[in-house]
Amino acid sequence: MIDDSTPPAVSVWEWMPGHVSTLLSPPQLAAAGTALGRIHALFAGLPGSAPAEGPAGQRWRDIDVDDITATIDQLLETIAGRIDAGDGDAFDVEAQRTLLERRDQLVHVPELVAGLPADLTVQVVHGDYSPVNLLFVGERLSAVLDFRPPDPFLLAYDLGRMAFYPNSVTGDADWLGAAATLIGAYRQEHPAVAAADVRTCGRVALLQLLKSLYGVRQHYLKPGVFQDDLDAFWLLRHRAVSVLPADLAATDTLLAGPADD
């Protein structure tokens, strides 16, 4: 139901029971993959599909490494000032280390962007599909929350973000197996998905992590209400950036599955 009695219209839904789990079990991974496959299959017919070289897809080919580097340098200058003044804390030390590492890691961005196929699917997607927006009752998925506005975007973004979520990559020793479980269920529910979208989703997820300074940027430029959580999320995402490239070959092998046969 849409409540338009106030200036911003609000989508009102039935209250659903359930809890959030940031590290999913195999049955939960399968349920999450099935639900995402169903969403993508249903949304494929909505208006807005476009070639990946159009505006939505082009965002992945227009990553401004110099601008990201400049923001990192600005944050490092702020941190150095705090430390030199004797006001530094434990997070400042971690932020300085991780930002220096991220600045070096940005060298991989042009090669990753150049490797993206031109024929990726662009359609209406969930836009924020992740464990924190899923509710489970035991192993059963009870609700999918927080759909973003229906702006067409890369299907591979939705799939890669969920399959290689930082909590899984850094917290599950068999994170490749977890990704395989989710993607297998997704493909079973959405067999029409293009092979290129599946093959590319890991690299799209890595690109998103590489170019994002979410959490640490807020800490120094505009602290959020739950900044401690954002700080922890920045460190978690950065650890995932350190893990994914080391196993990119294994990830590519995993994603070259039945849809390529």
From TrEMBL:
Any single Pfam family the record assigns to this protein: APH
GO terms, molecular function: homoserine kinase activity
Keyword Transport among record annotations: no
Keywords: Kinase, Transferase
Chain ranges of the Aminoglycoside phosphotransferase domain: 9-192
Family annotation (InterPro entries): Aminoglycoside_PTrfase, Kinase-like_dom_sf
EC number: 2.7.1.39
UniProt enzyme class: transferase
Transmembrane segments: none
Protein name, entry field: Homoserine kinase type II
Protein's organism: Streptosporangium lutulentum
